[in-house]
């Protein structure tokens, strides 16, 4: 076989069966061509980070703003990925896992509204398909498939596209994180103070935004893209660069999959705009903006959830909470997420050091410890937001549970930080550094 062409709003070209795809043309905003392809997990508009790809003038390929995305997809991944991940629904029942695993996964879904839901275990039980499996279940549970007359096969294929556009090699910003945020969003949508006012459209928007809010995340932050003159930073004029890309990528997949093609044009346009508003709200640099608005509403007691505008604002707040809820999980899961996100920070710092760039805040493994990063994040970002969320919910049992976990986890990290200082032989050495790191988080510079 000398050439394979797959039509999916574009094409995949191979010179022989043993080579990686050179170019995949799809919806989006970037064009990349490689001589030897890319690692299997790195498909999407931002492949495996290589310094040559960050400098438009030195890379031999063409990188530019286009209406159609040229995505990189390895030959091996296309031909050896499971039929489920490729979005193919077989005629006969599909059994990827044995009945024991499937039974455990089904049992977990029966408790998907519980705050101690273990997304790591669920991802293993579903063979790495936690996001697709969870969303299909939630869409059915909330009656969205029936209400919007969605085609189940089309929905499944769209969700597969979303799941596959997360980079599996990212320690933190991957499909498991998206599934975790989606499960948290489901819990928040059930809060009594909010649930009774939500329409089916609100629920679908909340779940879709949670699932796709970090799609195609490159594993580096906005300042990194800006200082390397990345085309996305230029395209979005250094404003909410990643969030704009997540949103535009999501819209591209919605249109490509034609999931909502049967709905009135005005409705689909409204859905696209509201998805953008929700995803853009996750920009950490806008934290104070949303927190101040929430405090003002709660102080004035003027939230009217019968009004679509106020409901949308609370969906934005709910998504922001879901996105940073890891410190509010039980310690065992919270610690895993903390280690994952810091590992991603450190990888960026190593890359910056390798190419003699200034190391970004919180990305220096030699100076920025996991405990100090987490303490600062909890103190300046998480606690203020979740205290106001608790006020909104009337101190619901879920809110009290989250704040209890948050206090416990912060105490755990403080204990670990003290042990680190004792091992260094000086308890005073880390004090000023820790305060500086916490302030850095407060200023919104975290990746």
TrEMBL record:
This is Phosphodiesterase. Residues 97-420 form the PDEase domain. Its EC number is 3.1.4.-. PROSITE patterns: PDEASE_I_1 (PS00126), PDEASE_I_2 (PS51845). The keyword Membrane does not apply. AMP binds at residues 173-177, 214, 323, 374. Binds 2 divalent metal cations per subunit. Site 1 may preferentially bind zinc ions, while site 2 has a preference for magnesium and/or manganese ions. Zn(2+) 2 binds at residue 214. It comes from the Eukaryota. It holds the Pfam family PDEase_I. Belongs to the cyclic nucleotide phosphodiesterase family. PDE7 subfamily. GO terms for biological process: signal transduction.
């Amino acid at each position: 076989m000398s050439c394979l062409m797959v039509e999916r709003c574009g094409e995949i070209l191979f010179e022989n069966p043993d080579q990686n795809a050179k170019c995949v043309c799809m919806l989006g905003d970037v064009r990349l061509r490689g001589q030897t392809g890319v690692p299997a997990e790195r498909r999407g508009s931002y492949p495996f980070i290589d310094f040559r790809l960050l400098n438009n003038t030195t890379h031999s390929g063409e990188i530019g703003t286009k209406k159609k995305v040229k995505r990189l997809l390895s030959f091996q991944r296309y031909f050896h990925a499971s039929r489920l991940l490729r979005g193919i629904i077989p005629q006969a029942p599909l059994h990827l896992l044995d009945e024991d695993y499937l039974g455990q996964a089904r049992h977990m879904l029966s408790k998907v509204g519980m705050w101690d839901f273990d997304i790591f275990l669920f991802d293993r039980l579903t063979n790495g398909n936690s996001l697709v499996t969870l969303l299909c279940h939630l869409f059915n549970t909330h009656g969205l498939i029936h209400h919007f007359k969605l085609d189940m096969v089309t929905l499944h294929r769209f969700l597969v596209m979303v799941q596959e556009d997360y980079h599996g090699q990212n320690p933190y910003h991957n499909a498991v994180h998206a599934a975790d945020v989606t499960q948290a969003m489901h819990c928040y949508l059930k809060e009594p103070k909010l649930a009774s006012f939500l329409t089916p459209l609100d629920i679908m928007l909340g779940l879709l935004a949670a699932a796709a809010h970090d799609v195609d995340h490159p594993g580096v932050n906005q300042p990194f893209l800006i200082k390397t003159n990345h085309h996305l930073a230029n395209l979005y004029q250094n404003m909410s660069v990643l969030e704009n890309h997540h949103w535009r990528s999501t819209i591209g997949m919605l249109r490509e999959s034609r999931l909502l093609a049967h709905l009135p044009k005005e409705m689909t346009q409204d859905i696209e705009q509201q998805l953008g508003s929700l995803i853009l709200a996750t920009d950490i640099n806008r934290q104070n903006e949303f927190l101040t608005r929430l405090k003002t509403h709660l102080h004035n007691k003027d939230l009217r959830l019968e009004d679509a505008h106020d409901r949308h604002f609370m969906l934005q707040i709910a998504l922001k909470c879901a996105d940073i809820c890891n410190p509010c999980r039980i310690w065992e899961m919270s610690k895993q997420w903390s280690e994952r996100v810091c590992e991603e920070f450190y990888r960026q710092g190593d890359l910056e050091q390798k190419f003699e760039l200034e190391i970004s805040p919180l990305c220096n493994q030699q100076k920025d410890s996991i405990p100090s990063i987490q303490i600062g994040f909890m103190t300046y970002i998480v606690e203020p937001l979740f205290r106001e969320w608790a006020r909104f919910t009337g101190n619901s049992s879920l809110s009290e549970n989250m704040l209890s976990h948050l206090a416990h986890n912060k105490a755990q990290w403080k204990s670990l930080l003290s042990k680190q200082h004792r091992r260094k032989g000086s308890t005073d050495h880390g004090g000023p550094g820790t305060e500086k790191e916490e302030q850095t988080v407060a200023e919104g510079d975290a990746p």
